[in-house]
Structures are given as structure tokens and as C-alpha cells.
Amino acid sequence: MTGQHTIVITGASSGIGLAAAEQLAARGDQVVLVGRDERRLAAAVDRVRTAGRGIEPGHFQADFERLADVRALADHLLSTYPQIDVLANNAGMVAMSHRTTVDGHEATIQVNHLAPFLLSNLLRGRLRGGRIVNTSVRPGPGVRLDPDDLNDEGQRYKGVAAYQNSKAANVLFAMEAARRWPDILSLSLHPGLVRTDIGRDTALRYVFRYAPLLISPEKSARRLVRLATASAAELTNGALYGSGKPIAPNPRLFNPVNAARLWTTSEEAVTDPAT
Questions:
Q1: Catalytic option among 157, 163, 210, 241
Q2: How far apart, in Å, are the Cα atoms of 254 and each of 89, 193, 227?
Q3: Cα–Cα distances in Å, from 5 out to 25, 104, 179?
Q4: Can 163 be counted among the known catalytic residues?
Q5: pLDDT per residue over 46-94, tens digit each?
Q6: For the whole prediction, is pTM greater than 0.70?
Q7: N or C, which terminus of the chain has less Cβ within 10 Å?
Q8: Nearest-angstrom CA–CA distance, 159 and 161
């Protein structure tokens, strides 16, 4: 894509999201930052403003453990921006102990999948002709996501497994969105092993900060920026990308049947009880 575009990035207060926001602002794009923590979000806005040489970025505070915040975010975006060219669903977390949100869902699957699924659906009309980029990971061989049971009822909770399942859901979501919404380019991103603070409240913070072979958020963000800005002709709708060509995940899980099942389950999970 060429010219100035409006690009919404969730999880933009730090890490990959912030680095991508700076890189996109430096290109001259109108960037909208979404973050959970007010202080960190304000600091990120300052950095992105500097990178954009004074262009004022948009921003909105939202906690994806509350679907009401997601709906408020969508209302703000729809009332503020006549066009949204890219939605980068980048916000993510990992909880090492089971936690249930106010909406009744396991926290990791809500923040990493259900919240961006809801946001994408609410913005669907405004995204026509644009694209959605979901920050995921390359699915490992041990992923056991059940598209009909997102909260993994009856299973012993394991934080890393819950995180992997939520990231697998991101890939399936992009696959099914590509089928249902052909007027939107839907992609998922494997960012690599990145030095971030995603596990800052858990013992995993040492892994994400000090493990060998980690790449910087700035280098990883270039992958996100590429998917947000490359010509649509260079990309395959519904695909998972790393640094180069599409990654082909195991069809045992990543197939059209499971993608459609996940969509149905997700729709049921995010339905507003007040409507």
C-alpha cells in the first residue's frame, strides 16, 4: 500500500506493537495506539509522535479482559475514523494460573482471541478494502485446540498450553475471515522469538527477556509492517507469515472445517447478553 493510511494497533504500549507503530508513523501513516495501561500508553504516544515527526497519533485505553472495553473501543474508532485501512490485532498475554474474566471466559483465550475476534467483527464494515493482521506464533506440534471448547472445560490448566491454543485460534480466525470476508485481506503473523515483556507478570518474563537467539521487537515489527503495507498481490489471503513465504501449519488442526467451527463458537462467546 502507498500513501498515508489509518492503522490501528492493539497492544501498542510496548514490544512489537510499539515498534511497529513507530515504523509506520515514520512512513507518514496515521497510527492509532491501543493499550491497557494509561501510563505506558501515554509514553508510547510520545514516542510515536516523535517517530512521525510531530504527526499526532490516535490512542485509546482498553483492557481486553473486558469485552465492554472492546465494544467501547470499536465505538470510538467508528465515530472517529471514516476509514480504517489496517487493524493489527497484536495485543496478547499469557496467564500461568487460571483466571476467569468478568465475561466468563478463561483470560488468555479472551485477550488473545475472543477480544480481537469481536473487534474485527465490529469494525468489519469500516475495514472493507483493507486488511487484518493477527499476531500469532508458528503453531507447535503439541497444540490441542478444541474449536468447540475454547475454555478447555474439564482440563487441568496449563499456562503455556493455553497461550499456544489462543495463538492457534488466531491462525484459524484469519483462515475463516479470508473465506467469509473476501473484501478484506486477513493474515496471521509469526513474529519470531522476540525479546518482549509479554510474560512480565509471570516466571516466563526471564524467557522472553534473556533466552538466547531472541530477536529485537524492532526487527520483529518489520514483519508486521510488511504485512500491513505490502501490495495485496504479494500476499495470500488467510495465510500465516513469518519473515518470508507463507507457513503451512498442520492440516490436522488447521483446516476449513475447524476454522468454521471456531468461528461459530467464538460468535456465541462474544454475543452481548444485553442485546
A1: 163
A2: 19, 22, 21
A3: 10, 36, 24
A4: yes
A5: 999 999 999 999 999 999 999 999 999 999 999 999 999 999 999 999 9
A6: yes
A7: C
A8: 5
